[in-house]
Design goal:
The chain is α/β, with parallel strands linked by helices and about 650 residues long. Among the domains are: about 250 residues, TIM Barrel (Alpha-Beta Barrel), CATH 3.20.20; about 100 residues, Methane Monooxygenase Hydroxylase, Chain G, domain 1 (Up-down Bundle), CATH 1.20.58.930; about 40 residues, no CATH class. The chain contains 21 helices and 23 strands. The strands form four sheets. Strands 4, 13, 14, 15, 16, 17, 20, 21, 22 and 23 form a ten-stranded mixed sheet that branches. It has an eight-stranded parallel β-barrel with strand order 5-6-7-8-9-10-11-12, surrounded by six helices. A three-stranded antiparallel sheet has the order 1-2-3. It is globular, with a radius of gyration of 30 Å. The chain starts with 12 loop residues before the first helix and ends in a 16-residue tail after the last helix. The structure holds pyridoxal-5'-phosphate. Pyridoxal-5'-phosphate (PLP) binds next to α11.
């Protein structure tokens, strides 16, 4: 048993974990899928996967977390409606773009309430999937986004039975197409209008709402749509008013402003005779990724219950004032339902310089035979002088003089690099000077930390000397928002959490892209530039979890540098243990090459042919080549080493 030390709070698990994450008594990270005592030890999940030959990187889903989140959302609206005596009905519509993966959608469907669920689709692909899924009784399919005739034809044809088709009009030009289809097919879906609010969201996706928004109808367009529908005899089908001001709305105030404006529009349209029954408040319910409970980009300053309360209370107030019936409520919360349910477990190793600290390059030959560039006597005199000076600084630097000595070292290094460029220094000499210089930098950093001295210059130095942890994943594949919008995701080791993490560093992924790094980490007060990690792995793999990946990351991840999807599994808590279900063993090189337009068979054939001609006696290359096609794209490891983790 490991004593619970103070540093346990270092990773902020209690803050961002939302009750789903906790550090167990043996220093392992546990998932509590029901937010109670029942938990699954992530180290056990890795060990069990290794027994099936699957090793990190592993994308692990917890279907029960999805269930808990959906039930929580229902419960919050139940509670808000009963608190404010709201006579109306709430429906949760899941937007497929947030996570269209089959195991995710199927689990949400399983966990949903009949008569209170639906799917939102915004593209042909999503529509094709939604139309065939087995939804609970009396579900909705809300069709948003830009629509052509094909989409409108399809939605019209599928209307009039369960699930109910809802066409959300985003642009006036959809109406004549719809009217024609309705007349020709003799049926019409239920209709909604997406209004463009003046209030905007907040945070990264702020620009997706407001007047300049890509979507929705402004006030005069709304009125024009109503008149057009009336003229076409379709006004009785118009029952829903919808808005969506952007994802991850970070402040409760923005949510209130938006619902206030929309409720007012609802009431005014109602009074004008539009038979609206429902207000669909879209998505935007945010997640506290850093645990700070602030309106900073990766956080939110409200809870799901406060979100529900704000909406229910505001709509009731305004409808009371305007004396119109209360609408049923729909939300299209996607991020809030899915973010917590999945995480990536992967292994990493620090990449300090591989040169042993006491390695001294043997200086035998100096500047080779390139004597022609060496004019005068400078070579013999100044070159050693700079190196000797560097060595002297390294020996004499102290807490009293480090600022001045560090500056001297930077100047001397400049001279040394010039001398090397001009051919006056050997590579061995340059290497020696470099060793001294790095030592000076490290000492400077220690002294600066000791004395609490900071300056821009030393911050840059601190950054340059951050230990880099080579981590077996691709940022572009598994955490695309970290790269695309600088989004923060909680990251921490899944084991050794009872030990003090004495090292700090940043994570670099396997891609040959300098953007393939994670160098901002969640912190309750600030954003950390380095993550605390443990020293010395004792030959064991060192495993990290990148958490809260369930919203948007799955399908936005790409194949940059030809890294594919990692192996994927679902872990389900059972009485006294857990079960794992392998969803996929990960994309192989073969599948990835195929995506890039290659025919794997042909390539293998071509290699075999060429290779056979070149060296008939060596068949190893061919065997290796065949094996390469079958392998995953990540660094390989020995499953045995993952079966017995500290
Ligand atoms: C993306 C989207 C959502 C999902 O928003 P979240 O913030 O993930 O809940 C909901 N509705 C529409 C129309 C969307 O485009």
């Amino acid at each position: 048993m490991v004593r619970r030390a103070k540093h346990i709070g270092l990773y902020g698990v209690e803050q961002w974990g939302a009750g789903f994450f906790a550090i167990g008594p043996t220093g392992h990270l546990h998932i509590h899928p029901f937010r109670d005592d029942r938990s699954v030890d992530l180290v056990d999940v890795v060990q069990r996967s290794a027994e099936q030959g699957l090793i990190p990187p592993l994308l692990v889903r917890f279907p029960q977390v999805l269930q808990t989140q959906l039930e929580h959302l229902y419960n919050c609206f139940d509670e808000a409606m009963s608190e404010f005596d709201y006579r109306g009905h709430y429906r949760s519509v899941f937007p497929l773009k947030v996570n269209p993966m089959k195991p995710v959608v199927e689990q949400l469907i399983r966990a949903s309430r009949s008569g209170a669920f639906g799917l939102e689709v915004g593209s042909k692909g999503e529509l094709a999937i939604a139309l065939a899924l087995q939804l609970p009784k009396d579900s909705w399919i809300c069709v948003n986004g830009f629509k052509d005739q094909q989409i409108i034809k399809m939605v019209t044809a599928a209307s009039g039975r369960d699930p109910q088709m809802i066409l959300i009009v985003e642009q006036l030009r959809e109406i004549p197409i719809l009217a024609r289809e309705a007349r020709m097919q003799g049926r019409c879906p239920l209709l909604g209008l997406r209004c463009r609010l003046n209030s905007r969201g907040s945070g990264h996706w702020e620009a997706s709402g407001g007047e300049s928004s890509k979507f929705g109808l402004g006030s005069s367009e709304l009125l024009c749509a109503v008149d057009t529908l009336q003229a076409r005899g379709l006004l009785d089908r118009l029952q829903i008013l919808h808005y969506h001001i952007g994802s991850q709305i970070t402040s409760a105030r923005r949510i209130k402003d938006a619902v206030k404006e929309a409720a007012r529009i609802y009431a005014r349209l109602r009074r004008r005779g539009v038979p609206l029954t429902t207000l669909n408040v879209g998505g935007g319910l945010g997640i506290d990724y850093d645990g700070s409970r602030t309106p900073s980009d990766s956080s939110v300053n409200y809870t799901t219950l406060e979100f529900a309360n704000n909406i229910v209370y505001t709509v009731r107030e305004i409808c009371g004032e305007e004396n119109v019936p209360l609408p049923n409520l729909v939300s299209e919360s996607g991020r809030a339902l899915t973010a917590h349910h999945s995480l990536l477990i992967t292994n990493c190793e620090s990449r300090e310089s591989d040169v042993p600290v006491n390695y001294v390059p043997a200086i035998t030959t100096r500047a080779g035979g390139s004597a022609t560039v060496m004019k005068g006597a400078t070579r013999e005199q100044s070159a050693p002088a700079q190196i000797a000076e560097m060595e002297a600084i390294a020996q004499e630097i102290s807490v009293k003089n480090f600022r001045e000595y560090y500056h001297d070292a930077v100047a001397t290094r400049g001279e040394i690099l010039t001398l090397f460029d001009l051919g006056y220094l050997s590579l061995e000499e340059k290497a020696l000077a470099e060793q001294h210089f790095y030592q000076i930098c490290r000492q400077t950093l220690t002294f600066a930390r000791q004395t609490g001295f900071t300056s821009d210059e030393f911050r840059v130095l601190e950054k340059a000397f951050r230990t880099k942890y080579v981590t077996n994943f691709s940022v572009f594949r598994s955490v695309p928002d970290a790269w695309a919008v600088g989004h923060l995701f909680p990251i921490l080791p899944i084991h050794r959490l009872g030990e003090f993490p004495s090292e700090k560093g940043i994570l670099v992924d396997l891609t040959c892209d300098s953007d393939g790094v994670i160098d901002s980490f969640v912190d309750v007060r600030d954003v950390k530039e380095m993550l605390e990690l443990h020293a010395g792995t004792n030959g064991h793999p060192y495993l990290l979890a990148i958490c809260l990946l369930g919203a948007y990351q799955d399908i936005m991840g790409d194949h940059h540098n030809l890294f594919g999807k990692p192996a994927e599994l679902a872990a389900t808590y059972t009485e006294g243990g857990f079960e794992i279900d392998v969803i996929s063993r990960g994309e192989t090189i073969r599948e990835i090459a195929h995506l890039a337009g290659y025919d794997p068979e042909r390539l293998q054939h071509a290699f075999a042919k060429r290779h056979h001609q070149a060296s008939a006696e060596n068949s190893d290359a061919l065997a290796y080549y065949t094996a390469l096609w079958r392998s995953p794209s990540y660094l390989e490891g020995d499953p045995e080493s993952f079966k017995n983790l500290p």
